[in-house]
Amino acid sequence: MPVKRLADELAALAEGTRMDRVFLGVCTGSVACETALKIMLLRYKADPARRRLSKPVILVLEGNYHGTNLVTQTMRDMWPGFVSGMKTVALEPNDPAALEAAFRKYGARVAGFWRSR
Question: Which of 60, 75, 88, 102 could form a disulfide with 66 if both were Cys (CB 3.0 to 4.6 A apart)?
Answer without folding.
Answer: 75
